[in-house]
Amino acid sequence: MTTVESRPNPGPSAARQITERQRVSPVDHRSLAKAVEAAVQAVDSSTLTAVAPVDAGLALQPKALLALLAFSYARQIYASLDIETSLRGDSNFRLLCREQFPDARILRRFRRENRKALHTCLTAALRFLAEQKVAQGLVTHVNEAHVTEEANRRVIMAMFTDSSAASKDQTRDTPVDLCYLFANRRLRTH
Hints:
The chain has 190 residues and is mostly helical. It is built from nine helices and two strands; from the N terminus they run βαααααααβαα. α2 (29-41) crosses α3, α3 packs across α7 (115-135) and α4 crosses α6.
């Protein structure tokens, strides 16, 4: 991840200290979740586009979907189908949401309809991760331009991953018009 600037190459003992600090304080996903939650709470609900009925379950509400996608992308989980599968496999989540949770199609639609808010929350999550690296002494400072670029790259990566999976899963029949053209060995001009 290129969201931060690295320090000059430390000596062998400094490198050993950094490695020890990494083992002692790895990125805590609960802390990342709190950072995402704070970013989502700062978003004005009226700016979000709902992709499910108002009376849909808790997990289908705009802020819940925003938090879910920002957290997933911050953890480098991009495919909507992977996120859906993870939710289906979590029995506690299923109980909490009364078996109403987003499928891949809803996740893709939410991303498309709320890209600006998603980018804002993902940027906050990545800034948090970069600040963790500063606190661990792995880097000297957070480069805001890199954080913003990385958030944009991750949203694009999610879109690409989903479109790639969709095109691989779809079987495409040759359109009837093309079959007719090849059968008659003529090409129509438009």
